[in-house]
Design brief:
Elements (H helix, E strand, L loop, with lengths): L1 H11 L22 H4 L7 E9 L4 H21 L6 H5 L10 H12 L10 E10 L2 E11 H23 L7 H8 L2 H18 L10 H16 L1 E6 L2 H16 L3 E2 L6 E14 L2 E14 L4 E13 L2 H26 L3
Parallel strand pairs: 4-5, 4-6
Antiparallel strand pairs: 1-3, 2-3, 6-7, 7-8
Helix pairs in contact: 5-11, 6-8, 6-9, 7-9, 10-11
Length: 343
Amino acid sequence: MASNKALLLALTGSLWLAGCSSQPTSEGGRSDVPMWVEQVPQRSGFAYGVGSMEVYGDPVQAQQRAADLARADLVSQLKVTISGDFENQVTERSGTGRETEIERVVRQQVRSQIKPVELDEVHISEQYSGQYNGRQYAYALAELDRSAAAARLRQRMADVEQQLQPLVASAPTGSRMQQLQRLLPAMPLFEQRQQLAEQLAFVSTSRRSEPLPTDLQHLQERIQTLIGQLQVAVVARDRDAEKLETAVIQALTQQGLRVQSQGADLTFELEADISGRYKNQSHYVFADCQVRIVDGNGRVLSVFSERAKGVSGVYDMARQSAAQRLADAMSDAFAASLISLLD
């Protein structure tokens, strides 16, 4: 559900400024003041937002700011009408909640590289400038044709689904990593489709999206299965790394990685320098680590450094906490290494 909440935050943008868009009316209820300045319009199949900004200097800048606030206000009008089961309607993940932590990390990293979907149909339909209490204000009315937006989003979803079709029928062979590498190009497309589905549910008057077709669900499950089946090894290259090895393996296993000593698809080569101090009845453990991720052919996919810190009243617990933080960084690097195979 985090991805849906992150999307709504991205959509609302500067929504905290929407309080500025509560519109002061012109003095004396002048007849030349547009009705939309005082009351947001209501029209079936459309969404509206009104923004206002006091003119301090450049009136053009004030009008542009009022337009930005009008767009934010429009999104807020959509947001408040979202039903309680909105997140369930846009959730498209197959596997009925079986997604592991490492699969989630991979998916999030893929999504972070995708350009957010924009509501292209939102436009400023009217503008007005008037006075209130002796001050000049700029006003703007944003309008969204929800039917037109929904139609465009459905067409874009269909285009993405068409791009996925060649991979549906593919049957890659070879090692687990080779099979996954052949199917990985589907992941950005799945995330694009997911974003479009979330936007569709957001703007659609029915508050519903289009379910992922069955054949694409199966392709998605194949990719998830391959990621879940990948085996990694952890190799400690020095004495301090050996002190972290067991805790790191345990943490990686909890995240959904299969840790094996033989036949690994990827190997984490770990070097560490552990230091610590005791202060205020607590142990502080610092692990300065360097990690290399190597594939089955000995090719280095990634090298990174991490300073992991653990704090506890018990030294071993502090060291284990540092190992957990190191494992988190390793899982992020693991995900990034898979994504690098897309290039």
